[in-house]
Write a structure and sequence with these properties.
about 240 residues; alpha/beta; three-stranded parallel β-sheet; 9 helices; IolE/XylAMocC-like; Xyl_isomerase-like_sf
């Protein structure tokens, strides 16, 4: 499948004051040809596809689908409510993928690691899940922020960086380039983040006891690649992802 570029609609101003129609207007104004939808858009907007067609915008994906596999009571996502049985989690994901295979056109799912995730906090772990699910419509999402945030950055450290972070990142990217099949890369996300002036620990204005530090950092400090204040090695990660 040819490479398709798009922007996440939440990046087109995510304030409730900005309607979905306004976001599409902004995408068209800045000559963006594709968008990645947020699931809340599906709940809030009817005739969404027609609106995108009117703006000559292609919908390349819907982000994000979560709180699904391995839930003990199928409604709660706290760690203590997640099963530690990998077979149950894989069965859930295979069932979802099989449902997608029955659709026409086929619905594809990409599995993403989050730097603070309970079960898959590295790209290696998400790749392992993809390989074990073993469905043609189930692939991997490579997110530059989450790759960097796990091995290079540390929002709870005074420097904003993990010890030997760049060395660990280089090693991680070498493994990634050699391990991931090109056909299994369904989505690549390029995004940076700002370095905090103070460690994100208790007492910091962004600190939330119920959230891991990296999660709070992610939700408050994301930047476009190249935007002033970004410090993650996005270029190196992007080069690796597109050389797979």
């Amino acid at each position: 499948m040819p490479l398709q570029a798009a922007i996440f609609v939440m990046s087109l101003e995510c304030s409730p004051a900005h309607s979905f129609a306004h976001k599409l207007d902004m995408a068209k104004k800045y000559v963006i040809s594709g968008i990645e939808l947020w699931w809340e858009d599906l709940l809030a907007v009817r005739k969404l596809r027609g609106m995108c067609d009117k703006h000559s915008l292609q919908i390349i994906s819907i982000q994000s689908f979560y709180h699904y596999e391995g839930l003990r009571d199928r409604s709660i996502h706290e760690q203590q409510e997640l099963t530690d049985d990998a077979a149950v989690r894989l069965a859930d994901l295979r069932k979802m993928a099989d449902l997608g295979l029955d659709k026409r056109p086929i619905m594809r799912f990409c599995y993403e690691s989050l730097a603070w995730d309970t079960n898959a906090d590295t790209w290696e772990k998400s790749l392992e899940v993809v390989q074990q699910v073993d469905r043609p419509n189930f692939g991997i999402c490579l997110d530059a922020f989450n790759i960097a945030a796990r091995v290079f950055a540390d929002s709870a450290a005074p420097s904003g960086c993990a010890r030997d972070g760049m060395k660990e990142l280089v090693s991680s990217l070498e493994r990634l380039r050699c391990s991931v099949e090109p056909a299994k890369v369904f989505l690549v996300q390029l995004v940076d983040a700002g370095r905090l002036k103070e460690p994100l620990v208790e007492g910091h204005e962004l600190y939330q006891a119920a959230q891991p530090s990296r999660m709070s950092w992610s939700r408050n400090c994301r930047l476009f690649y190249g935007e002033h204040g970004g410090y993650l090695p996005i270029r190196e990660i992007a080069w690796c992802c597109f050389m797979i």
